[in-house]
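Appendix B, example 12.
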Amino acid sequence: MKMRGIAKKAAGCGLVLALLAGCCTPMASRAQLQMLEQARRAAEAAEADLEACKQHRAELERQLAEKKQVLAEWQNIRASVNRP
């Protein structure tokens, strides 16, 4: 969530810079638009990475829950065996 906000702010800043540069010099406008496009691509890549990390985390949490369940079952078996 935090990376998405940063990416949007970066893209927004790039857009402002591109618009300001376009008002001052036509030559800078093309360079600023290229920089904005690069920033957009970087933001999209960061969002894709973030989504992949979220999915990986969800899978790890699912695996952890399964392993906790198995551990609890084994502890119950052990406790029942060790009863006098």
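The CA atoms of residues 18 and 26 lie 10 Å apart. The chain has two helices and no strands.
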